[in-house]
Amino acid sequence: MEEMDIGFPTTMKLQVDNTTAEAFMNNTCRKSKLKHIDCRQEWVKMLRNKDIVVPVHVDTEVNIADFFTKILSAPRFKTLRDMFMISRKLN
User: What is the mean predicted confidence (pLDDT) over 5-33?
Assistant: First the structure.
């Protein structure tokens, strides 16, 4: 695979709550079982090996991405919504 010579000023942190994805990105497994990663393994390896992207574990309880990607119960929805919405007091 030919690599692009792109300079990056800082390492990007990718918050991950999936242990298989974390293991692959930390280079602790040879082959991923993630179907959506398999077709892009070489790209992910290059990002990892050049320290362009570093995985950071995020606990599922505070993973704001779940707000956009999962069907949530009302209490869970409100908790995640309140993590990134600014509360406004009405007069």
Answer: 73
pLDDT for 73 equals: 94
Query: Could you give the CA distance from residue 74 to residue 30 in angstroms, rounded to a whole number?
Result: 40
Give dist(CA 43, CA 45) in Å, integer: 5
- Pair (66, 45) in one structural domain: no
For residue 74, give its domain range.
60-91
Instruction: For the chain, give the mean pLDDT.
Output: 77
42-67 residues labelled b (16+ CB within 10 A) or e (exposed): eebeebbeeeebebeeeeeeebeebb
* Whole-number Å distance between alpha carbons of 17 and 91: 40
Q: Are residues 86 and 54 in the same domain?
A: no
Q: Is the pTM of this model over 0.85?
A: no
